[in-house]
């Protein structure tokens, strides 16, 4: 398979998509008929290819050296000359000023480094299984302590409402997920170097390199700090015997969100399933509607707050599964 190449042509230029097939938002089945052929311009118009999609095409063009110069490919200006990709980016992005938003919303498919220090860099990279290994014991601990805390405060009464308290915590996470994504992660940093750097570190990097598997999940350390803040908020707002169960449900919601987010980028859900629609929905957020579609594990709050993305019908379902031989 490594010797096979998947190429297609567009306006006389050749694009090598071999290493990108598994990540292509439009699915393999929409590409396969154009292997080694010219893609009609009308096709991209019919499917309303976004500016972000055209920008991403530059990454796979065989007609230029990636990331060098101010040249244009297919009429799309290359903005990558604004930073030096051979060096850590975190201390560079703050200097982009008014160009930051345009640059960070123009996706690329390449490795990115934040820190020159190897330890700090490793902390920013997160595998899906490390998230599970960290949060499952934490969730179990709070369910355990929460149950006995509730039992001691309500001796002689039924415990049937314990699951309801956990469900309450899950619901709190759901609104927190939407709120954090919309009003913190997508906060406009204007031209402030500090806010630009902060935005890039906590979320902008994901929009810039959306296919980097090690940067899809929130690292446990900063996630833990945010979790502590929410825990103390719960201790202030809730009866003491509800705090641990609520927080356990809240953390369970976070874990479900993180695993869902990872799957939406790298999974291949079957058509006519909830996760299939959710993957299409999240892809639309990345490539078409940056200011809508903030719900990752559910679009419910998008409906409530008027940021819902409406998915258009397709002539055939998307299939992201790549055959052994293509």
Task: Characterise the protein shown here.
The chain has 326 residues and is mostly helical. Residues 65-73 have low confidence and may be disordered. The protein has twelve helices and four strands, in the order E-E-H-H-E-E-H-H-H-H-H-H-H-H-H-H. The protein has helices spanning 41-46, 51-57, 90-93, 100-104, 118-123, 128-153, 162-185, 193-208, 220-237, 240-266, 274-287, 300-305; strands at residues 7-10, 13-16, 72-73, 76-77. Helix 7 crosses helix 10. The chain is globular, with a radius of gyration of 22 Å. The strands form two sheets. It has a two-stranded antiparallel sheet with strand order 1-2. The chain has a two-stranded antiparallel ribbon with strand order 3-4.
Q: Indicate the multimeric state.
A: single chain
Query: Mind describing the biggest β-sheet?
Result: 2 strands, antiparallel
The N- to C-terminal Cα distance equals 8 Å
The tally of beta strands, per DSSP, is 4
Enumerate the strands of the largest sheet in spatial order, edge to edge or round the barrel.
1-2
Mean pLDDT: 89
The number of distinct helices, counting runs of at least 4 residues, comes to 12
EC number: 1.-.-.-
Main location: endoplasmic reticulum
Protein name: Fatty acid 2-hydroxylase
Organism: Agrilus planipennis (Emerald ash borer)
């Amino acid at each position: 398979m490594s010797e096979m190449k998947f190429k297609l042509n567009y306006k006389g230029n050749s694009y090598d998509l071999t290493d990108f097939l598994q990540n292509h938002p439009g699915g393999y089945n929409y590409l396969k008929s154009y292997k080694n052929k010219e893609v009609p311009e009308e096709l991209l118009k019919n499917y309303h290819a976004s500016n972000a999609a055209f920008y991403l095409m530059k990454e796979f063009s065989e007609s230029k050296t990636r990331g060098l110069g101010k040249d244009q490919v297919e009429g799309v200006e290359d903005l990558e000359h604004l930073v030096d990709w051979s060096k850590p980016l975190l201390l560079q992005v703050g200097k982009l000023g008014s160009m930051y938003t345009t640059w960070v919303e123009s996706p690329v498919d390449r490795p990115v480094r934040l820190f020159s220090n190897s330890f700090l860099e490793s902390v920013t990279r997160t595998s899906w299984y490390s998230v599970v290994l960290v949060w499952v014991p934490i969730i179990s601990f709070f369910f355990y302590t929460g149950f006995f805390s509730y039992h001691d405060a309500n001796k002689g009464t039924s415990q049937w409402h314990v699951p309801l308290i956990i469900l309450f915590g899950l619901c709190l996470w759901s609104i927190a997920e939407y709120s954090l994504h919309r009003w913190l992660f997508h906060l406009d940093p204007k031209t402030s170097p500090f806010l630009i750097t902060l935005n890039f570190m906590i979320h902008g990097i994901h929009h810039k390199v959306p296919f980097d598997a090690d940067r899809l999940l929130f690292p446990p350390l900063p996630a833990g700090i945010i979790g502590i803040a929410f825990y103390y908020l719960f201790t202030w707002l809730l009866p003491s015997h509800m705090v641990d169960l609520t927080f356990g449900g809240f953390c369970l919601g976070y874990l479900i969100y993180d695993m869902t987010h990872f799957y939406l980028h790298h999974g291949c859900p079957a058509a006519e399933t909830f996760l299939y629609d959710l993957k299409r929905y999240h892809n639309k957020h990345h490539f078409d509607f940056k200011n809508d579609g903030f719900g990752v594990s559910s679009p419910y709050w998008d409906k409530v707050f008027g940021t819902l993305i409406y998915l258009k019908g397709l002539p055939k379902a998307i299939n992201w599964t790549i055959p052994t031989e293509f």
